Amino acid sequence: MTEARGPAGRSGEAHARYAPGTPCWVSLMVHGMATTQEFYGALFGWEFRPGPRQLGPYVRALLDGREVASIGQLPPDRHLPIAWTPYLATADADRTADTVRLCGGTIGVGPLDADEAGRLAIGSDPSGAVFGVWQAAAHSGTAVTGMPGTPVWNELLTFETVGVAKFYESVFGYEEEPVVSADFDYVTLLVDGRPVAAIHGVGNTLPRDRGPHWVTYFEVDDLEETLSRVVDLGGQIISPARDSERGRVATVACPEGARFSLLRPDRRVPRG
């Protein structure tokens, strides 16, 4: 098992803790906190409450009273790419940060404490894709999954999988399950035999203005209706609805430009 589960929620699965290497949280840093909360609140039904004080203007998003994600404020003079960042669970953030550096990655923030919630670091892999590291204390991570408005999958888009997959395997101990295909460069990352994330090598089709980056997928019940709502709320459709191995999916962007995917899962596919 990749995580110890708490009692099942009324309409989702509650989590007690996440095994090391498992994506356990997602966070977004933006310039317009109020408008961003309005967008995601209307899109997913999220409510918000203040987060750890050390992280500055920062809120946690709640669904039915349970934490699912967070949104923070970028300083006005920081012009960084606006993107959702997945956090990967670890038992020791400091040791993981050291391993990231030893394996050719970088650590840009931390490790540092977030009140009593836990300890975090933010780094990037050798290709430049940004990810977080989370050592849980009072806050174990996303408190519920398996319902609309919750993260359901995370996938790294990069140039090619071979070297980058070795980095994540070395840092987090993943097993790898590559797709054997001459024209599809894709590796699923496993923890204890369970798929938790993936790496997709897309070569020169990677957007030049983005570079390698992680994409968070949020679950929805009705993909077409949600896409219509994205546009009505001031967002943008980047990639229209299509069928995939995990279900029906589309890629969109919020008004601040953060890209993410919407997934109506195929219930026959094992959850990541």
From TrEMBL:
<dbReference type="InterPro" id="IPR041581">
    <property type="entry name" value="Glyoxalase_6"/>
</dbReference>
<protein>
    <submittedName>
        <fullName>VOC family protein</fullName>
    </submittedName>
</protein>
<feature type="domain" description="VOC">
    <location>
        <begin position="150"/>
        <end position="265"/>
    </location>
</feature>
<dbReference type="InterPro" id="IPR037523">
    <property type="entry name" value="VOC_core"/>
</dbReference>
<dbReference type="InterPro" id="IPR052164">
    <property type="entry name" value="Anthracycline_SecMetBiosynth"/>
</dbReference>
<dbReference type="Pfam" id="PF18029">
    <property type="entry name" value="Glyoxalase_6"/>
</dbReference>
<dbReference type="InterPro" id="IPR029068">
    <property type="entry name" value="Glyas_Bleomycin-R_OHBP_Dase"/>
</dbReference>
